[in-house]
Amino acid sequence: MKKIIDYPFPRRLKLLRLEADYTQEEVGIKAGLPLNSCNSRMNTYELGRHEAEYSIVKKISNVFHVDPAYFYAENESVAELIRNWSKQNLPKN
């Protein structure tokens, strides 16, 4: 069995994806991942089986218009502050 990564990124990624009503493949495509692997890579990120490199987290952040810090904040209240700040301050692509 593969090691499961214990940090907030997988949980928050899935939350944002479901709220946006995107498939894993759609998120991967929007983030610019290779078409032949975007679905499986997004799945491993959501399951916590693979840790996304920061450059990928930044691309995923752009898809959802949130600061990358949202995915790393250990405290849920801090994460929500970051998310709300992002909504008000980050440009929509």
SSE layout and pairing:
Layout: H1 9-20, H2 24-30, H3 38-47, H4 54-64, H5 76-89
Helix pairs in contact: 2-3
Notes on the protein architecture:
- This protein is mostly helical and 93 residues long.
- The chain has a single domain, classed as Orthogonal Bundle (434 Repressor (Amino-terminal Domain)).
- 58% of the residues lie in helices and 0% in strands.
- It contains five helices and no strands.
- α2 (24-30) crosses α3 (38-47).
- The longest helix has 14 residues, at 76-89.
- 23% of the residues are buried.
- The mean pLDDT is 91.
Short account of what is shown:
This protein has 93 residues and is mainly α.
Oligomer: single chain
Total number of strands: 0
- Major sheet size, sense and barrel closure: none
* Shape type: globular
Portion of residues within helices: 55-70%
Distance between the termini: 39 Å
Salient structural properties:
mainly alpha, 93 residues, 434 Repressor (Amino-terminal Domain)
